From TrEMBL:
Its EC number is 3.4.16.4. This is serine-type D-Ala-D-Ala carboxypeptidase. GO terms for molecular function: serine-type D-Ala-D-Ala carboxypeptidase activity. GO terms for biological process: cell wall organization; peptidoglycan biosynthetic process; proteolysis; regulation of cell shape. The active site is at S72 (acyl-ester intermediate), K75 (proton acceptor), S127. Residues 38-276 form the Peptidase S11 D-alanyl-D-alanine carboxypeptidase A N-terminal domain. The keyword Metal-binding does not apply. Residues 1-27 form the signal peptide. Removes C-terminal D-alanyl residues from sugar-peptide cell wall precursors. Substrate binds at K251.
Length: 427
């Protein structure tokens, strides 16, 4: 009897302790989120990056520059290139090579024809490898030519450690001869930082970003081949879209070498985050990527606020007229002065700042100019910095051009001055 009572008392105390721990943990999380003090506690991914999609600034990274295979997250590049270089109504004929791709596959057959739009849904919703190759061959002429397009686009975006070999992300390697004539082996790979940059481009800067989002956010899609002999249904397997408020898009990936990979985007309260995960576990740890995504996105939402850089106060000295030495004017004794303007903000209008970060603004303008000066000549800059690192630069330019004085100008001005003096004396 006594033992039973002690067990009940102990169970009751244990239950109260668990409730209190849960309460205090929840309270701590709420306090941290309100005061911007949360930190990334644990990530399963070997490599991870959280990026400000608007500016490209890395907000958090774990081995962000490690070069690793990226599996089917590759397909975001395949998709955006197809959208930018093709037409959704294009007719794609399936080759023998495309039809031979391994799982995951739509099971398209050689000689069949499909609309490019339908194959894009197949590739992005179900991650079909055969659809990706058919798309690549249609857009690039061959997989090899399309891979060149992928690498060129990656370089344009600013990716420095990415090597695309396949359009579907299957593990592959290629031997490339360097400038010294030596062969080096490259694997199909990227970094979490580069992958986040590619996704940021897809959703923010590409002229086809709206269609990209429409395709990748669609819950389900049905279509048939052009002859209507076979019908297909595709379902979106991106669980992140239902996992967090504001989830925009994303792409999963897995191969034996890459492990589970993911890249996704979230937009909330005017802030857009992109997170990329590489080598985020192997079977049976398929859910690790969702845990890491939530951890990174919660960190970004709690710790960063949006700042309008163009609203930062500037030193008025930047807008003063600048004397121009040896410049032509309308009168002999008149000095020239150049009016200047601050160039329009192009890409970086706003930036996500950590709650304890401050922006410093430095204006640098030339004190004197020398003719000849062309219109829109750069004469200074405004630098926006965080902890000494320049994050944005705006050029200060001249509004007009100035010609250099020559003998003809001097002669004409002297004559004009002489005539003007004589005219005044005669009056």
């Amino acid at each position: 009897m006594w033992n039973k009572m002690m067990k009940r008392i102990f169970a009751c105390i244990l239950w109260i302790a668990v409730c209190l721990c849960t309460f205090f943990e929840s309270a701590a999380v709420c306090y941290a989120q309100e005061n911007g003090t949360t930190e990334v506690k644990k990530l399963y991914a070997r490599s991870a990056v959280l990026m400000d999609a608007d500016s490209g600034r890395v907000l958090f990274e774990k081995n962000g520059d490690d070069i690793l295979p990226m599996a089917s997250t590759t397909k975001i590049m395949t998709c955006i290139l197809a959208l930018e270089h093709g037409d959704l109504a294009d007719i794609v004929e399936v080759s023998e090579y495309a039809a031979s791709m391994p799982d995951v596959q739509l099971n398209i057959r050689m000689g069949e024809t499909y609309y490019l739009k339908d194959l894009l849904y197949s590739m992005m919703l179900e991650s079909h490898n055969d659809s990706a190759v058919a798309i690549a061959e249609h857009i690039g002429g061959s997989v090899e030519a399309f891979a060149e397009m992928m690498n060129q686009k990656a370089a344009e975006i600013g990716c420095k450690n990415t090597c695309f070999i396949t359009p579907n992300g299957l593990d592959a390697q290629v031997s490339i001869q360097n400038a010294e004539g030596k062969n080096t082996t490259h694997i199909h790979s990227t970094t979490a930082k580069d992958l986040a940059s590619i996704m940021s481009y897809c959703i923010k800067k590409s002229p086809r970003k709206d269609v990209f989002l429409e395709i990748t956010r669609t819950p389900s899609y049905s279509f048939s081949d052009i002859k209507n002999t076979r019908s297909f249904s595709c379902n979106n397997h991106n669980a992140f879209l239902q996992m967090m408020e504001g989830a925009l898009t994303g792409k999963t990936g897995f191969t034996g070498k890459a492990g589970y990979c993911y890249v996704g985007a979230l937009e909330r309260d005017g802030k857009t985050f992109v997170a990329a995960l590489l080598a985020c576990g192997w079977p049976n740890h398929k859910t690790y990527k969702w845990s890491d995504m939530r951890e990174l996105m919660d960190y970004g939402l709690s710790n960063y606020h949006k700042a309008d850089l163009s609203a930062e106060p500037l030193d008025d000295a930047w807008c003063a007229k600048i004397p121009v030495v040896n410049a032509k004017t309308d009168h002999l004794f008149e000095d020239a002065a150049a009016e200047v303007c601050l160039e329009d903000a192009k890409e970086v209008h706003s930036l996500l700042l950590k709650n304890d970060e401050k922006i410093s603004v430095t204006c640098t303008v030339k004190k004197v100019l020398e003719a000849p000066i062309e219109e829109n000549t750069v004469v200074g800059s405004v630098l926006y910095s965080i902890d000494g690192d320049v994050i944005w630069e705006r050029k200060i330019r001249t509004k007009e051009s100035f010609e250099e004085k020559n003998y003809i100008w001097y002669l004409k001005r002297i004559c004009d001055t002489y005539l003007d003096i004589n005219l005044k004396n005669s009056l």
